[in-house]
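Hi,

Apologies if this is the wrong queue. I'm a grad student, and the batch job for Flavoprotein from Streptomyces pactum produced an output file that my downstream script rejects. I'm not sure whether the problem is my script or the file. Here is the sequence I used:
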Amino acid sequence: MAEAAEAAESPGKPFLYVVVCAAGVADGVSKLITAAQERDWEVGVLATPVAMGGFFDTAAVEAQTGRPIRSAWRRPEDPRPFPAPDAVVVAPATFNTVNKWAAGLADTLALATLCEACGLGVPVAVLPCVGDALASHPAYRESLDRLRGMGVRFGDPYAGEAGEDGGRPEFAWERALDLLEQR
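Support response: The file is valid. Your script probably expects a header line. Output copied below for reference.
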C-alpha cells in the first residue's frame, strides 16, 4: 500500500488500521483500540482531517497505540510509519466518508487508504454513524450497496438495549472486530 511500512513491527501479530471520521462518538475510539489490542492486534490510526480537529483525544490515542496518527500524506523521503494492514476498521464512518469512498474519491489519506484496501482485498469492517435523515438519502443507500458488493462488511453499532437514558444505545465499538472475525 502507498502508506504501508515495509517491515512488520511485531512478528506474528496482525496489524489493524483504524480509520476515524468526524462524528460525535469518535471520542470513544480508545474503546475500539483497547478491544483490538486485547484480541492481539497491533493498531495504527488514520483520521480524516476534520476528525483531527478535536473529535477525539489525539494525544491519548497516540500514547495508547505507541504510533502517530496519520491524517496527511508523508513525503517520499519520510519513513513509512505503519506496516501493511491485515484488516481495516472504519469507525465511526460518516455519510461523507461512505459516499466519497464508494465513488472512488481519494482526496484524503484516509479515503485513499480505504480505496487501496478494497483493491488489495484487505478485509474492511465499517460501523456507520449516520443520522436517519442522511441514511435515507438515495446516494447513501447506493454507496452501501456498492461497498458491500466490494466485500466491505457493515455492522449496526446501535443494535441492542436502549441507553441508560432510554435513548440510543452506546456505540458498540467491538462489533467492528466481530465483523472481521466472520470470515
